[in-house]
What does this fold into?
Amino acid sequence: MIEVRGLSKHYGATRAVDDVTFSVKPGMVTGFLGPNGAGKSTTMRLIVGLDRPSAGSALVNGKRYAEHRAPLREVGVLLDAKAVHTGRSAVNHLRALAATHGIGRGRVDEVIALTGLESVASRRVGGFSLGMGQRLGIAAALLGDPATLILDEPVNGLDPEGVIWVRHLARRLAAEGRTVFLSSHLMSEMAQTADHIIVLGRGRVIADAPVADILALSSGTAVRVRTPEATRLSELLVDQGTVVRKGDDGLLDVTGLTAPQIGEVAARSGVILHELTPVAGSLEDAYLALTQDDVEYHAGGLPTGPASTVPAPNELSSNERVSR
Amino acid sequence: MTATLTQPQSTRALSALSFGGILKSELIKLLSLRSTVWCFGLVFVMTLGLAGLVANASGGSGPVPAEGVQAIWVQSATIGIVFAQLVVAVLGTLTITGEYGTGMIRSTLTAVPRRTPALTAKALVIGASTFAVSLVALLGSGLLSAMVLQGQGIEVDFADASVWWALLGGAGYLGLLAMLSLSIGAIVRNSAGGISAVLGLILVLPIVLSIFAALAQADWVRNLSAFLPDSNGAGGRMFSYTVAGLPVPPDMILLEPWQGLVVLVIWVIALFALAGVMIKRRDV
It folds into this structure.
């Protein structure tokens, strides 16, 4: 259980975290989402006391992090894969952290096995890939078998297999009744992992709701239709009171009818369909809609007006990817 | 009982954060880096090697007056400290700036969120290990230089307690210097900056003061350098061997070995306290 109340962190005139209030509950995965620079990492550092808040408080399991008798047993933290001395081996890094809390060598070997680091445990961390560093960070977070886990961008740098592993780990830890709080700037990642999502933009909470509710915030439910008779179908659909956007190659984006309803309309009129894909509830769309006014750094030259929901090339929604 | 909280396959008791644990953690950290092994190895090579060389050179330069034998012995045994101190200063600084440079400090201060115990444990561990290594190296240097001198027909007096006190003082100087360097490293938080600051304090500042003293013809400036922590100031007095009856120039302050210790301890406490306040206040 993490309780953040009125938390703020100012760097001069910049409000990195601005009067943030939220709770992270046990037994579920809570996603912490926001563009780069939104204040996610700062908030997490404030929770474990690495940064001092300008105002407000953060309690973990009822107390300030530093006030716990055994902090590593209360909270496991992955703040930064680069929080390791590059000249030390993975096993010695973990032994050193474990020693502070009198955690034995047995548990060190357990977390090494759990994160699949056996083969590299005695190698110096300086030679680790980003993915191995990430696994070592997660191993360190699990050392104290903590009731609360705070993981900042845990899938950063992981290969697809590693991403799935983190996803399963997070779900399993939550299923064991632990509080799991993980951040990402990728909505698609959250869609697969989180039960509840807190969206941060420019240091403020702009959404705090179950995943389903965030999905519903998505601006309309669209269906992608591909047909050789695009003009005819779009006329038919507009008659039904829908909004149709025409693209190239007979591509239509239809809003206002479900995919089965569109299929029925087409069948009644004998229109051939090549594709009928609901792109409904893309979390990316919801996310972009939520954060478009709160992005700290816009790519130069891109339109920043409110109508712009153009996804960045690397952030295409999972649905779009499937349809190709 | 709390046993139900642990995972079934695990038999470990629910232990908590303790200062003993933090000390052990810092010892693991110190001994698991190659730089530590290299630095301590260099301390050995420098003290023993220079002790042998200087003892050899002293013996070969003609007859030695009886009252000077002990002084020559101590000088040969401790001459390596002047070089070993550079290695110790670098090691002491790196103990903490290496953590800031790599980000390790965030892991350290997450495990020990009250921070001061982590800094204290670091200081104690680096101080005690440097002291222990230096003591072994200096005792070895003492025996080696005695053997070399005796090989040349110069008999040293092993029963002279002042010699052993000087060797102990030399190890104490290096141990305290490591703690002083750690404190400066914790204040500066950057390896290059920290090492520059420590070497500036023990190498450059004494020279600057002596130039200033010579130019200004001021005794008080010269006396000021007696209170600097370096091996020509208070630190050096800890491993000095004073020949009885030697005249001390008037208006010159010459600290006793124990006074040198006190001055150095004050330096360490002052810088450590500043480091403690800063590590507690700053964001990591």
User: Anything to note?
Assistant: Residues 160-175 of chain A form the longest helix (16 residues). The two ends of chain A are 41 Å apart (CA to CA). The CA atoms of residues 1 and 61 of chain A lie 5 Å apart. The longest strand of chain A covers residues 14-24.
